[in-house]
């Protein structure tokens, strides 16, 4: 379930939500667009629209499992919550390309990377999906391909930092994207190799790996 929470959090970030993460949870301030789409408050927004007033998007908390601890004025969303499931479905189905920048008060030079997010699972029997992330530097060709949450996370936003200098690509974008895709496919095959052998011995039909592209982006980071 942790992979599902990570995917939901990244999806909300990429759609403009402000996210504060701590152990086992993330507090999310939704944007108006996200609130309208997922929080099932049509009458509230119709009322605001009729009065030509701006509304107040809700704040939610993403948690790995349902908790008995209630927080005033904040809705807990766990993997079994219908709103969580709705956001998760959108995160999987809305393949999108984005541009984002690492945020820091001291950053001046930023280097371009291509990033791809995927999930993969074995079918049958429909095992839990695993999230994969891959990056390739467009200046050095360095590749990072890892499963789940092993790649160091940076704070990314859609706003370019003031006074930042963006380095130019040294590798063609399409070539880099194809290289990264191949590396991700190899990583996925290695990840499920033992699982496929085990399932093949117990299933009449041959199992296969089903992979889904979630999103891809051009991100600018402090490391080349």
In short:
With 224 residues, the protein is an alpha/beta fold.
Describe the structure in your own words.
The protein has helices at residues 2-14, 32-38, 42-50, 82-93, 173-202, and strands at residues 18-22, 25-29, 59-63, 75-77, 96-102, 109-123, 130-137, 143-147, 156-157, 165-166, 208-221. Strands 5, 6, 7, 8, 9, 10 and 11 form a seven-stranded mixed β-sheet that branches. Strands 1-2-3-4 form a four-stranded mixed β-sheet, covered by helices on one side. The model has no long low-confidence stretch (mean pLDDT 82). The protein folds into two domains: 2-93, no CATH class; 96-221, no CATH class. The protein starts with a helix and ends with a strand. With 224 residues, the protein is an alpha/beta fold. Pfam families: YqhG (PF11079). It comes from Jeotgalibacillus haloalkalitolerans.
Number of structural units classed as domains: 2
Radius of gyration: 20 Å
Low-confidence stretches: none
* H/I helix tally: 5
Structural class: alpha/beta
Largest sheet: 7 strands, mixed
Oligomer: single chain
Distance between the termini: 32 Å
Strand percentage lies at 25-35%
Organism: Jeotgalibacillus haloalkalitolerans
InterPro entries: YqhG
Pfam family, one: YqhG
Protein name: YqhG family protein
Record the SSE blueprint.
Elements: H1 2-14, E1 18-22, E2 25-29, H2 32-38, H3 42-50, E3 59-63, E4 75-77, H4 82-93, E5 96-102, E6 109-123, E7 130-137, E8 143-147, E9 156-157, E10 165-166, H5 173-202, E11 208-221
Parallel strand pairs: 3-4, 5-11, 6-10
Antiparallel strand pairs: 1-2, 2-3, 5-9, 6-7, 6-11, 7-8
